[in-house]
Design brief:
Length: about 450
C-alpha cells in the first residue's frame, strides 16, 4: 500500500492546524457573536469553553486521528470495529464539513470582493451609512457574490489537489505569521480612535445578568467552531501527523493562538464600533462595515485594507481547506475514489450550496425555515448543534470506550513524552465535558 501522506515539519504541521483553526471564525464570526450576545458576558463564557472544552475535544480528536491514521469515518471503524454505531460520528463530521463549507465560502467570497474594492480605491471615502448601504447592495446581488464564491471554490480546489505538503502546509506556514503582525498593527490603530475605551468596556466588562442559556450555547458553539473541533476535522489532520509529534503540546499551542487572534479581533472591532456609532449587534455585516471605516482613517488606507482582506481571504482559505479535506479524505478512502474525483465532487457540491447560501442574502431572503434564512440556519445548525453534540460524543468515545493504556501510549508517544495531566484529561473527557455540553443543549431545547 502507498504510504500515507504526512505533514513534513513540526512547524508546518502546527501552522496547518493553526491555519484550520484561525479563520473567519475568529475575525468575522467571533465579534459578530460577541456583539449579539452582550460583549463581556459572552467573552468570559467563551474563554471557559475554548480553554477547557475546546482543548479537551481537540486532544481527543488528535488521538482518534493519529491512532487510526484514517479519515473521520474510517477512524471510528478502525478504533471500534465491533461497535459500528460510532461511525455515525464520522458521518456527522462529513455532513457538517459540507454544510459549513457552504456558508463559509460565501463570506470568503466577500473578502475577495473587498480586496478588489480596496485595490480599486473604492473603500476610502464614505460614511458609515454609505458603507452599510454598499455592503447591503453587494451581498443581496444575485450575480456578483456568486461569482466570488466560484472564484474562491476554484482556488480551494486547486490547493486541495496539490496535496497535503505542497498545498496546505506551505500556504499556512507563510501566511499565518503575516496575519498576526497585521492584526497587531490594526489593534494599535483601533485603540487610538476616539471613544475606544467605550468599546473595550463593552468587550471586557462581563455583565453576569446577561449570561443566559442562549449566550452559553452560542459561546460553546463559537468555541468549537473557532478551534475546528466537534466534527472530525482535527481527526483528519491528525491522521497525517508523524508519530513523533507531541500532541498535548500542539493542542495547547493551537488553542492559545486561536484565542489570541479572536481577542485581537475583538480589540480591533469593538473600539471602532463605539467610535463610529455602529450597533455591535448587527450580525454578519459587522466586520465589513467597521473595518473599512478604520482603514479610511489611516494613511495609505486602501493599501492596508487590501493587505488585510487578502490575509483574511488566506485565513479563510486555510480553514476551508480543512473542511474540504474532511469530505475529500472520506470519499477518497471509504469510497475508493481517486483524490481528484473526490475533491471535484466536494468542490462542485460545495459550490452549489454556496450559491444557495449567497442568494439567501438577496432573492432567497424571504425564504425562511424556522424563521431563519438558509445561511443563518446552516450557521446555527452546524455551530450550535452539530459541533457541540459531535464534540460531546467524541469525548464519550475517548473517555469511556477507548482503552486507557492505548490512549496513554498514543498521547505520550509510547511513553517517551511526559504528559502529567493525563488523568485530568481523562476525567474531563469522561465526565466534565459531556455533562456540561449535554446540560447546555438540553437547557437550550427547553428540556430542563
Ligand atoms: N475554525 C475555522 C474558523 O475559525 C473554521 C473551521 C475550519 C471549522 N474547519 C472547521 C469549524 C471544522 C468547525 C469545524 O474560521
Amino acid at each position: 500500500m502507498k504510504q500515507r501522506a504526512t505533514f513534513n515539519s513540526k512547524l508546518g504541521l502546527l501552522m496547518a492546524a493553526v491555519g484550520s483553526a484561525v479563520g473567519l471564525g475568529n475575525i468575522w464570526r467571533f465579534p459578530c457573536e460577541a456583539g449579539e450576545h452582550g460583549g463581556g458576558a459572552f467573552l468570559i463564557v467563551y474563554i471557559f469553553c475554548v480553554l477547557i472544552l475546546g482543548t479537551v475535544v481537540m486532544l481527543a480528536e488528535f488521538f482518534i486521528g493519529r491512532a487510526s491514521q484514517k479519515d473521520s469515518v474510517g477512524a471510528f471503524k478502525t478504533l471500534a470495529p465491533k461497535n459500528t454505531a460510532w461511525k455515525i460520528l464520522g458521518y456527522n463530521g462529513v455532513v457538517a464539513a459540507f454544510l459549513i463549507f457552504g456558508f463559509y465560502s460565501v463570506i470568503s467570497g466577500w473578502t475577495l470582493e473587498y480586496m478588489y474594492q480596496s485595490a480599486a480605491g473604492n473603500l476610502n471615502a464614505g460614511s458609515v451609512a454609505e458603507f452599510t448601504e454598499n455592503f447591503g447592495n453587494f451581498t443581496s446581488d444575485a450575480f456578483r457574490p456568486v461569482l466570488w464564491v466560484l472564484v474562491f471554490t476554484l482556488i480551494v480546489h486547486a490547493v486541495v489537489l496539490s496535496g497535503v505538503k505542497k498545498g496546505i502546509e506551505r500556504a499556512s506556514k507563510i501566511m499565518m505569521p503575516v496575519l498576526f503582525v497585521i492584526l497587531t498593527i490594526l489593534c494599535v490603530r483601533s485603540l487610538m480612535l476616539p471613544n475606544a475605551v467605550e468599546g473595550l468596556k463593552f468587550f471586557f466588562t462581563p455583565d453576569f445578568d446577561k449570561i443566559t442559556s442562549t449566550v452559553v450555547l452560542s459561546a460553546l458553539g463559537q468555541a468549537f467552531f473557532s478551534v475546528s473541533v466537534g466534527m472530525g476535522c482535527m481527526i483528519t489532520y491528525a491522521s497525517y501527523f508523524k508519530k513523533s509529534i507531541n500532541m498535548p503540546r500542539t493542542t495547547v499551542s493551537v488553542v492559545t493562538l486561536d484565542t489570541l487572534v479572536a481577542i485581537l479581533a475583538g480589540v480591533i472591532i469593538f473600539p471602532a464600533v463605539a467610535s463610529f456609532g455602529i450597533s455591535p449587534s448587527q450580525g454578519p455585516t459587522l466586520v465589513f462595515v467597521t473595518l473599512p471605516n478604520i482603514f479610511q482613517q489611516m494613511p495609505f488606507g486602501s493599501l492596508w485594507a487590501f493587505i488585510f482582506f487578502m490575509l483574511l481571504a488566506i485565513a479563510a482559505l486555510t480553514s476551508i481547506i480543512s473542511l474540504h479535506e474532511v469530505a475529500t479524505a472520506y470519499l477518497h478512502e471509504q469510497h475508493k475514489m481517486s483524490r481528484f474525483k473526490a475533491a471535484t465532487i466536494v468542490s462542485s457540491c460545495g459550490f452549489v450550496l454556496g450559491v444557495i447560501c449567497s442568494l439567501s442574502f438577496g432573492v432567497l431572503s424571504h425564504f425562511k425555515i424556522f424563521g431563519a434564512t438558509i445561511f443563518d440556519l446552516l450557521d446555527f445548525v452546524t455551530a450550535n448543534l452539530m459541533l457541540p453534540i459531535g464534540g460531546m460524543f467524541i469525548c464519550i468515545f475517548v473517555g469511556w470506550f477507548v482503552n486507557k493504556k492505548v490512549l496513554k501510549n498514543e498521547l505520550t508517544n509510547n511513553g517517551t513524552l511526559k504528559f502529567g495531566l493525563f488523568s485530568v484529561f481523562v476525567f474531563l473527557t469522561k465526565y466534565v465535558a459531556p455533562i456540561i455540553i449535554a446540560l447546555v443543549c438540553l437547557k437550550q431545547l427547553g428540556l430542563f
